[in-house]
Amino acid sequence: MQKILSALLALAVVSCAHPRGNYKGYKNATYTVRGQTYHPMSVDEAIYYQDVGTASWFNESKFFGLKRGDTAIGEKVMPWHKIAAHKTLPLPCVVKVTNLSNGKSVKCRVNDRGPYIGDRIIDLSPRAAKKIGFYDQGLTTVEVEVLSVGDGKYKRKKPKKWFFGLF
């Protein structure tokens, strides 16, 4: 019996190991939160997105971090994932977040919506916040740069710069 329980637990952990949901390509539909309507960027706009602003971190862990909620695109996430939430980027996308107070950077998968508090531009998972050194402070100033948008055959990467930084 114990072997069966161990096998089921291992299977559950493996099935949740990567944050992937049931959607095709990307999601950029208009949505409303607390009476405010948000119009996410097109893929063409998002691929060149770069911004500086305040980052925070969020945690929805329950039961020792092994049970988490779904993201805006239906992905299950675990405490070891480096993920983020953004109000207007298409979901999913990969961003590079750089803490401007110490220069540390992390790549995160943006797969949720938010933050909806003040002037914050991005919410990071606890692991991502620890990687760039602001977990204990709660907030920091960051630069956010999109590296790619979408998944699978729909994935688009930011074009490489050539000729002295020109596109």
From TrEMBL:
Leader sequence residues: none
Membrane topology: Lipid-anchor
Location relative to the cell: Cell membrane
Keyword Cell wall biogenesis/degradation part of the UniProt annotation: yes
Annotated EC: 4.2.2.-
Domain RlpA-like protein double-psi beta-barrel: 52-143
InterPro entries xref list: RlpA, RlpA-like_DPBB, RlpA-like_sf, RplA
Keywords on record: Cell membrane, Cell wall biogenesis/degradation, Lipoprotein, Lyase, Membrane, Palmitate
Function: Lytic transglycosylase with a strong preference for naked glycan strands that lack stem peptides.
Family: Belongs to the RlpA family.
Protein name: Probable endolytic peptidoglycan transglycosylase RlpA
Origin organism lineage: Bacteria, Pseudomonadati, Verrucomicrobiota, Verrucomicrobiia, Verrucomicrobiales
Gene name as annotated: rlpA
